[in-house]
Each structure stands twice: as structure tokens, then as C-alpha cells.
Design a protein that fits this description.
Elements (H helix, E strand, L loop, with lengths): L1 H24 L10 H51 L4 H29 L4 H15 L6 H28 L5 H20 L6 H24 L12 H26 L8
Length: 273
């Protein structure tokens, strides 16, 4: 953090040195009688600095939000793929694996979102459920080729879930770097002090414009605060991907249940898949 303070101070000293030395060597015709030009230059610089910092921070926040949302979509897709793959497991294993998949998804929707909002990390209880799920799929007996292939497909789906969950854990703790917040607050203070620095007189019009300036600056800072962390604040990544996965679980289970009677009365001993 020392560099963040030393470098601006060094730049200020350099600017003052160039200004004082340059004033002594420049022609007399270049000198101005008032300081309005310098005030205008500084105010333009303050506005440009604040606008650039706000734009840069908003882009970072929005990119983090989009990445976090994409990771939730990837995780929910992998959960549905794993649920479909588990349909081909033996009956006892299928019920256990699909039950754990439903329990894990329910915990993500109902409990883990609140933990990410409050603590900026994932829920240990939900992680335990996922570890139990993976262990259950790994423990499936692969006495035949079909079961072995199904277990491999389910494990591949869980690997994708684990990767997306890891990405979500990183997203939950990620925010705007501290030095950007420092630059934002510094620019905000300079911009709010700009009416005083410019020597603006207190009139009805100037008071109204200064109040409007405060509203715009406050709204910009509040928007950045709401966008800062994708799983907390005022603009949280929605849980719609997992809610859709829950709907798909019900659809898959209902379709399987409806096909069971047809299997029982079908010709021969070959089960209908």
C-alpha cells in the first residue's frame, strides 16, 4: 500500500517543481494575470478522473456479475446432466444419488445463498452434502459395463459441478480492489469540493446545481456499492438456474414413474429405458 501513497505524492512534487521552474524560464508573454485558467484546468481534470474511475469500476463489477451468473448456469446444467445419468443406475443407487442431488440443490437455493450474502463464502453444510453425493456415486458397484459407463457419466457430471462450485466460491469472495475504492473516494471528495475550489458564489442557482451534483455523485457511488459483490448487496445473482434444475428433477422423476407401468406389462423380459 505504500506505493499507492508514494507515487501520487511524488507526482505532485514533480508537477510543482516543473511549474515553479518553468515559471522562471518561460517568456513574460506567456504569463497570465489571473488564475482562472489554472482553476478550469484542475476542475476539468477532476471531472475526467472521477468519470474514468467510475467507468472502470462499473465495468469490473458488471464483468464479475456476469461471470458469477454464468457459473451458476454451468453448475445447474451439470446437476441436471448428473440427475439424468443417475436414471440408468440400479434402483437403490438411483434413489440415493438422485435424492442427494435434490438435497444439494435445495440447500444451495435455501441456505447457501444467505451464507454467501452474509459471509462471502460457501456453506460448509452444503459442501458436506456434495462430498457425500460424490462418495455415493463413487461407491456404486460396477459389476457390468452398462453400470460402469453410467457411473462414469455421473462422475463426469459431478466433476463439472465441482468446478462450477469452485468458481462460485471465488466469485462470492471477489470484489472491487481496494486501490480502486481509494481512487473512487478520492475523486468523489475532489468533485464535491470543486464548487469551493472554483470560487463559485452562493446563489439559488449555484445551490441547486451543487445539490444536483451531490445527487449524481451519490447515485454513482451507490450503484457501484450494489454491484460490488455478485452474491451480496443490492444486485444479487438470481437463483433461477437452480430453481429451473429443481423443476427438471421433478419432470424427469415424473417421466420415469409414468414409464414404469409400461415396463411391467411390456413383452419379454427386456426392461424399457
Amino acid at each position: 500500500m505504500a506505493l499507492e501513497f508514494i507515487f501520487p505524492v511524488a507526482a505532485a512534487v514533480l508537477a510543482l517543481t516543473v511549474f515553479v521552474v518553468g515559471d522562471r524560464v518561460r517568456p513574460e508573454s506567456w504569463r497570465q494575470t489571473g488564475d482562472e485558467a489554472s482553476g478550469t484546468l484542475v476542475l476539468d481534470l477532476i471531472k475526467t478522473f472521477f468519470t474514468a474511475v467510475v467507468a472502470f469500476v462499473v465495468v469490473i463489477c458488471w464483468q464479475q456479475y456476469q461471470n458469477a451468473h454464468n457459473h451458476t448456469v454451468a453448475e445447474s446444467k451439470a446437476l441436471v446432466d448428473t440427475y439424468l445419468a443417475a436414471q440408468e443406475l440400479p434402483e437403490a443407487d438411483r434413489q440415493q444419488v438422485q435424492g442427494l442431488l435434490r438435497a444439494y440443490t435445495d440447500q444451495v437455493v435455501s441456505g447457501e445463498w444467505a451464507v454467501m450474502d452474509a459471509e462471502g463464502k460457501l456453506s460448509p453444510a452444503t459442501q458436506d452434502t456434495f462430498d457425500t453425493l460424490r462418495a455415493s456415486v463413487t461407491a456404486v458397484s460396477s459389476s457390468d459395463t452398462a453400470t460402469s459407463d453410467t457411473r462414469a457419466a455421473a462422475l463426469a457430471g459431478l466433476d463439472q459441478v465441482a468446478q462450477a462450485r469452485h468458481d462460485r466460491a471465488v466469485d462470492a469472495g471477489r470484489g472491487v480492489p481496494g486501490f480502486l475504492y481509494l481512487a473512487l473516494f478520492f475523486g468523489t471528495l475532489l468533485l464535491l469540493f470543486s464548487p469551493v475550489l472554483s470560487g463559485l458564489r452562493v446563489t439559488k442557482r449555484s445551490v441547486a446545481m451543487t445539490a444536483l451534483l451531490g445527487v449524481v455523485v451519490g447515485a454513482a457511488v451507490l450503484a457501484i456499492h450494489n454491484l460490488d459483490r455478485p452474491f451480496s448487496g443490492g444486485n444479487v445473482v438470481p437463483r433461477d438456474a437452480y430453481e429451473y434444475a429443481q423443476t427438471r428433477f421433478e419432470q424427469i422423476g415424473g417421466r420415469w414413474a409414468n414409464s414404469a407401468p409400461a415396463t411391467a406389462i411390456g413383452a419379454g423380459d427386456v426392461p424399457h429405458r
